[in-house]
Input
Amino acid sequence: MIVIKLGGSVITDKEKDSHFNKRITYRLAEEIASAGKKALIVHGAGSFGHPQAKRYRLNEGFVDKKRQVEGISLTHFSVRVLNLKVMEALRHAGIPAVSIPPFPFIDESFIEKAKVAVKDGLVPVTFGDVVLDGNVSIISGDILMEIFAREFEVERAIFVTNVDGIYEDPERKDSLIKECTVKELEKVFFKGNAGADVTSGMAGKVKSIKEIAYSGVEVDVINGRKPGRLKDAINGIVAGTRVRKNE
Ligand code: IPE
Output
């Protein structure tokens, strides 16, 4: 089984509020279908969640509850709208997908629901969302990837992004890391871009990638804007960054 995250930067246009990249998402769904492997799917929120969550400071806990209640409803609504669009793309490609939202919070029943779906031959799809965990917070798709990788027998985790992989220095095109161990990844310094979005961009992603690789699952980071790369990655051929699992 493969666990795949379709990043918000690929399936949406992060520059425009609530803009769905339909053509790209439909192609990625076709690539997943034609690769023909069992999959669990996670997707990000992109412009259907980040601007809304930031506007209402949902990643800071309850700081202005009266106002934030509207923000919780709006953010959850927006990510559900995006999820329906992704579901349409997956179903169009012939994937028997079912949606399992993390709202209002993640507990054992979330995993149970995903396991029941897999057992019956369905493909669970979950997504980054706002959650009420005693307070208010944001659960990113990256954290959901960690949960799936831990709870299922997963052979590989694939992060589909809008860049070619992990760069030692994002400013230097020649610094793409093609393959590394998780220990080597520890040595790479990531400039935080926490201001950019509510789940801290690539720095947050790398933290989850390390977690997954340490738990014994290979992680690949690829560019979903380049046709064929997702299908190849599902089949074990990676044009991007391969983080070897910790053995
Ligand atoms: C963010 O999820 C969820 C919300 C902001 C509601 P992700 O952090 O996984 O989304 P992307 O992939 O960066 O867009």
In short: The two ends are 19 Å apart (CA to CA). The mean pLDDT is 94. DSSP finds nine helices and ten strands in the chain. The longest strand covers residues 156-161.
